[in-house]
């Protein structure tokens, strides 16, 4: 006999299980029927209707979706709510038509051809005007419709409703691709690899090494759909620059007798080689186009090397970024630079690499990058030190069967994000109901994530040789090996994302809840519970499930639009036209950097699968010490910190600073220029920078960027002068 439970509010005996039309089993949730009755204008008649409905259903049997729908309609008719019964039937049919359209490639291709902004501006890194991007968008549009048909129907419909977001639907599940990774450049550059028809041997100079890195990045980016990172790139490239130095020493001996001058000559030549190599890498990455129709999402992590060569690589990376790209010295969007600050290495003035930290501060005031990793805090939060995969995805500390710590060569298998504000809105202020719906969504997310993992297992090594057979993923598989050899035993991660903790707190505690301890504890408990679910799934499935603070480049818009359609405009929640990323402080407010980071610092402990903090600053070029003061204060408090500061530049009138947000995008506040050919407008889109004049973003993200208030006043900047 089926378990039953009594609903405390109206004294009903209810089923506990519900079988959806695709056969999936879910907990029975009464709030869904109550919501439908509210929408039908029958709020006052709930008890009457539900009482008759559940009296007519045999609860000793499993409740199926079709049976429930038919019984619900019949109950409305029996109680003479004929118009409402017809309205519900019409809505059901309308939703079936919408579902059919979403899984119809022709309908979505028509939207793409009509330049639907939701499609062409979904990814601010893709220029929808160029042929190769148009081809990728076309393929992705077809991939989305086919992917929705492939996945279990309850997951597909939850995605379309906006309960969850199944990320990267244009690539997966249609293709069994993986998400982001830390490329094992050391393995590949040491042992050689193959790309296409070319067998590539280990390089004999840093120039060749960086050229090979660019080719590896292009091929990896075409074989997965997420970002790719080079961890500790200064240390990886050091031995190849040493080969340059040794060659120059040999040259010097032919012309110079003095050993000291021989070394001076070789060092000078090697420094030039390093600069040229790193400049070449910067230009190559920014001119690459992967098969996905975009510049590869690339991150370079650096800052821990201590030799003169490693130091020179670090300085070259920063000086090249400061210099800018091309004749107009534009800000490079890629690669994302992530500089590591470490106590006793570069944190304080007496540390040996402090001069490089000063250069990093200068670079951030002029180009926003580098973002900074706090070495000790990253180890504490994630279990070991490593750079993020892509913009913010972090691997957990992991050792192989020989006890060796492994980071490079590992990967993430995908993300599914939960719409937290919707759960709050559906709960109607009932905290117990909030947690019930939350539990239901966690089960839904589990199903979706497990499906993601299972789909990646369908890949064969020959599908992506650069990843599986030539070292990018650390181990080299044979053609007959299972790709699971690289994923199992929690070597790979898979992530549940979240968005909108601010909106959840606002719904229950009001819009200014940031200093309310009860509200803070409630939102923190949400992330804690997500972490607990992930821990149990990791044990259950043998892959590492982690909580991920979703970047939400376009999801900030999508979820809010869907919830506005469902619940209407709600002050400080949906009326803003965007949802706040992850655990971030309300961007419209003016906390100091120290107040903002203090508020946010508790969340990454539980969201260790992906996180980043930002502070908004005025122009800091004339006083980089103000930024350094924040970095120093944050060292033992947060793990990963980004700098947002105005660096826009109009080449028509010479203005440098912050462009004005308008309905059509951004423009120079002095002359009104908004032509991307004659100005450079750089904004923090999410984890990466973007140029919204060259490649527009979705409406919600534009509004969010325009709403960002400064966390440091000009007066605070002068205090550090």
Distance between the termini: 75 Å
The unreliable regions are: 1-9
Number of helices: 25
Strand order of the largest sheet: 7-10-11-12-13-18-17
Rg of Cα set? 27 Å
Secondary structure class reads: alpha/beta
Number of strands: 25
Kindly report the average pLDDT value.
92
Report the sheet-strand fraction.
Answer: 5-15%
Main sheet record = 7 strands, mixed
Helix content: 40-55%
Outline type: globular
Domain Glycine radical: 589-714
Enzyme class: oxidoreductase
InterPro entries: Form_AcTrfase_GR_CS, Gly_radical, NrdD
GO molecular function, one term: ribonucleoside-diphosphate reductase activity, thioredoxin disulfide as acceptor
Describe the overall structure.
Helix 5 runs antiparallel to helix 7, helix 14 packs across helix 23 and helix 19 packs across helix 20. The longest helix has 29 residues, at 259-287. This protein has 25 helices and 25 strands. It has a 7-stranded mixed beta sheet with strand order 7-10-11-12-13-18-17. Strand 11 (298-302), helix 13 and strand 12 form a beta-alpha-beta unit. The protein is α/β, with parallel strands linked by helices and 721 residues long. The chain is 46% helix and 13% strand. The modification Glycine radical is found at residue 687.
Kindly list the characteristics that best describe this protein.
EC 1.17.4.2; ribonucleoside-triphosphate reductase (thioredoxin) activity; oxidoreductase; organic radical; 25 helices; four-stranded mixed sheet; alpha/beta; 721 residues
């Amino acid at each position: 006999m089926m378990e039953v439970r009594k609903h405390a509010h109206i004294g009903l005996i209810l089923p506990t299980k519900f079988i959806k039309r695709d056969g999936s089993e879910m907990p029975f949730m009464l709030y869904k029927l109550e919501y439908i009755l509210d929408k039908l204008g029958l709020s006052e008649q709930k008890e009457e209707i539900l009482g008759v409905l559940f009296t007519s259903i045999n609860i000793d049997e499993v409740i199926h979706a079709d049976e429930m729908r038919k019984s619900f309609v019949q109950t409305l008719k029996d109680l003479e709510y004929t118009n409402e019964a017809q309205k519900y039937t019409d809505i059901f049919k309308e939703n079936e038509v919408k579902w059919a359209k979403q899984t119809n490639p022709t309908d979505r291709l028509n939207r793409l051809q009509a330049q639907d902004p939701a499609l062409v501006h979904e990814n601010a890194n893709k220029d929808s005007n160029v042929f190769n991007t148009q081809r990728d968008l076309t393929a992705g549009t077809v991939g989305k419709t086919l992917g929705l048909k492939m996945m279990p129907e309850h997951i597909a419909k939850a995605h379309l409703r906006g309960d969850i977001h199944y990320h990267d639907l244009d690539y997966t599940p249609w293709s069994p691709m993986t998400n982001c990774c830390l490329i094992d450049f050391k393995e590949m550059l040491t042992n050689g690899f193959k790309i296409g028809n070319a067998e590539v041997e280990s390089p004999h100079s840093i120039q060749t090494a960086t050229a090979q890195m660019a080719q590896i990045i292009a091929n990896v980016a075409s074989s997965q759909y997420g970002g790719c990172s080079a961890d500790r790139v200064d240390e990886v490239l050091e031995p190849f620059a040493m080969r340059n130095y040794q060659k120059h020493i040999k040259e010097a001996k032919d012309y110079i007798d003095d050993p000291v001058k021989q070394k001076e000559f070789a060092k000078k030549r090697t420094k030039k080689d390093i600069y040229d190599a790193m400049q070449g890498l910067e230009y190559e990455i920014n001119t690459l186009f992967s098969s996905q129709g975009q510049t590869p999402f690339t991150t370079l992590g650096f800052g821990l090397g201590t030799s003169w060569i490693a130091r020179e690589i670090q300085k070259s990376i920063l000086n090249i970024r400061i210099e800018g790209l091309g004749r107009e010295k534009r800000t490079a969007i890629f690669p994302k630079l992530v500089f590591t600050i470490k106590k006793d290495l570069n944190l304080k003035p007496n540390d040996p690499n402090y001069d490089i930290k000063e250069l990093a501060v200068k670079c951030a005031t002029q180009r926003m990058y580098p973002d900074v990793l706090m070495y000790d805090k990253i180890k504490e939060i994630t279990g070991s030190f490593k750079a993020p995969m892509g913009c913010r995805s972090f691997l957990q500390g992991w050792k192989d069967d020989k006890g060796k710590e492994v980071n490079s060569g590992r990967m993430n298998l995908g993300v599914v994000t939960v719409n937290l504000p919707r759960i709050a809105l559906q709960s109607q202020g009932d905290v117990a109901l909030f947690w019930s719906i939350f539990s239901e969504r966690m089960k839904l997310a589990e199903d979706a994530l497990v499906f993601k993992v299972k789909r990646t297992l369908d890949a064969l090594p020959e599908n992506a040789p650069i990843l599986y057979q030539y070292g990018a993923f650390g181990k080299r598989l044979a053609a007959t090996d299972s790709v699971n050899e690289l994923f199992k035993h929690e070597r790979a991660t898979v992530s549940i994302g979240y968005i909108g903790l601010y909106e959840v707190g606002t719904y229950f505690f009001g819009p200014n809840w940031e200093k309310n301890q009860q509200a803070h504890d409630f939102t923190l408990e949400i992330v804690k519970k997500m972490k607990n679910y992930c821990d149990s799934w990791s044990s259950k499935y043998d892959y590492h499930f982690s909580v991920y603070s979703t970047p939400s480049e376009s999801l900030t818009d999508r979820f809010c639009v869907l919830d506005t359609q469902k619940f209407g405009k709600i002050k400080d929640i949906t009326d803003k036209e965007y949802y706040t990323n992850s655990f971030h402080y309300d961007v419209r407010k003016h906390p100091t950097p120290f107040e903002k980071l203090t508020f946010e610092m508790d969340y990454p402990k539980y969201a260790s699968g992906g996180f980043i903090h930002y502070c908004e600053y005025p122009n800091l070029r004339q006083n980089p010490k103000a930024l350094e003061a924040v970095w120093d204060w944050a060292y033992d408090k947060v793990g990963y910190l980004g700098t947002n500061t105005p660096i826009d530049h109009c080449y028509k009138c010479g203005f440098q600073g912050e462009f004005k947000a308008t309905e059509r995008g951004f423009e120079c506040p002095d002359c009104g220029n908004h032509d991307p050919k004659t100005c450079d407008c750089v904004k923090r889109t999410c984890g990466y920078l973007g140029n919204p004049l060259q490649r527009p973003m979705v409406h919600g993200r534009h509004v969010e960027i325009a709403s960002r208030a400064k966390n440091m006043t000009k007066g605070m900047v002068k205090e550090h002068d």
